[in-house]
Design brief:
By secondary structure, the protein is an alpha+beta fold. The protein folds into 2 domains: 228 residues, 3-Layer(aba) Sandwich (Rossmann fold), CATH 3.40.50; 124 residues, OB fold (Dihydrolipoamide Acetyltransferase, E2P). Helices cover 23% and strands 36% of the residues. The chain has 8 helices and 20 strands. It has a 6-stranded mixed sheet with strand order 6-7-8-3-9-10, sandwiched between helices. A 5-stranded antiparallel sheet has the order 13-12-11-14-20. β9 and β10 form a beta hairpin. The longest helix is centred in the middle third of the chain and has 18 residues.
């Protein structure tokens, strides 16, 4: 039996359907992420799990028991917010101890658990400080400690890293991964950041307009998106209209109106004549010098129109003769003799037949 089961949950605000008949199962010890654009329903769903809001229909079961109608304070669940919600007049230790004091735990137990929990989040020597004396990352860890001290069955995290700068966010991502492994508590994490979701999660649900587009592991969602929305939302990708010309297992031959014919991996259920899209990630393509001999079936001539140097990688925008543009991402770790391309260079774009996807919708 799953730890948390969401069955057919719907929530409306007037005529607006914020969450539309969603069903999700979350396992014990899982790091599960709700991912999607602003307004997709992920925070509304999290609030219903926490008990801050009620569904109009459906069930939310924890360990098989329906929690709909159960007050939030009675649920073995804690929520960590982006704003931290720390008490400014309390020390770190008092902030962390607060849930246990409210629960009426004995003083000796509170002290021992505060010491243990502060050690878990690497704040064991900062218990006497006040929130204003801490860095953003330290305040976030205090909020996490307060969420974990009562040993909840489920920890909900609502964009908890949103207020941190990029370097600190990356550091806290590692902290979250380690903390979740050490405690074994299931984390349900809300974010609109694709990179955060891919880095942290065991599984991701991609949400859109109140519904579920895909639930899967990060690698499956990134490499095998179910539809155009998921492909376009997760990372950079080149998407072009396509029609199936021929099925030559294990490949498909497609007609790309902007380019011509290409060969990519076959997809189950596809028929000759089907129309859809070809999707290919920028890192799956290569750039070759215009005069080089090309052996790949998928190669097209173009010109470098722009480039974006980002230290470890460079993203090139290549334009074909008909005006179509694609992005190609190349690592900058290659040997120095490898050609670096400049704006205006005539080049050939190449990708192998074992990459790329045909999407029906």
């Amino acid at each position: 039996m799953a730890l948390l089961e969401i069955r057919g949950v719907t929530r409306c605000f007037g005529n607006f359907i914020a969450v539309n008949n969603i069903s999700i199962s979350i396992e014990t010890g899982e790091f599960f992420t709700l991912l999607g654009p602003s307004g997709c329903g992920k925070t509304t769903l999290l609030r219903m799990i926490a008990g801050f809001d009620l569904p109009d229909s459906g069930q939310i079961l924890l360990d098989g028991k329906d929690m709909v109608g159960m007050p939030s304070e009675k649920r073995p669940i804690h929520t960590v917010f982006q704003t931290y919600a720390l008490f400014p007049h309390m020390t770190v230790s008092d902030n962390v101890a607060f849930p246990l004091k409210i629960a009426g735990k004995k003083l000796d137990e509170i002290r021992s658990r505060v010491i243990k929990t502060l050690d878990d989040v690497r704040l064991f020597n900062l218990g006497n400080r006040f929130p204003h004396e801490l860095s953003g990352g330290q305040r976030q860890r205090v909020a996490l400690a307060r969420g974990l001290i009562s040993r909840p069955r489920l920890l909900l995290l609502d964009e908890p890293l949103g207020a941190l700068d990029l370097k600190l966010r990356e550091e806290m991502q590692i902290e979250l991964i380690n903390l979740q492994k050490e405690t074994g508590i299931a984390f349900v994490f809300v974010t609109h950041s694709q990179n955060e979701a891919l880095t942290l999660s065991h599984r991701i649900v991609v949400m859109n307009q109140g519904g579920v587009e895909q639930i899967d592991t990060p690698s499956k969602i990134y490499n095998f998106p179910r539809n155009r929305f998921v492909a376009d939302f997760l990372g950079k990708i080149n998407i072009m209209d396509a029609q199936v010309l021929e099925i030559i297992p294990p490949y498909l031959r497609l007609l790309i109106p902007e380019l011509g014919q290409v060969v990519i991996p076959n997809k189950e259920g596809v028929k000759i004549g089907d129309k859809g899209f070809m999707a290919i990630r920028p890192e799956q393509m290569r750039i070759m010098i215009y005069s080089e001999e090309v052996n790949s079936k998928n190669h097209f001539s173009g010109q470098i129109k722009s480039l974006l140097y980002a230290g470890d990688v460079t993203t090139y925008v290549v334009e074909f003769s008909n005006g179509t543009r694609v992005e190609i991402l190349l690592p900058n770790s290659a040997p120095r003799e490898i050609k670096r391309f400049e704006i205006g260079d005539l080049v050939v774009i190449v990708w192998e037949s074992d990459v790329g996807l045909f999407l029906n919708d």
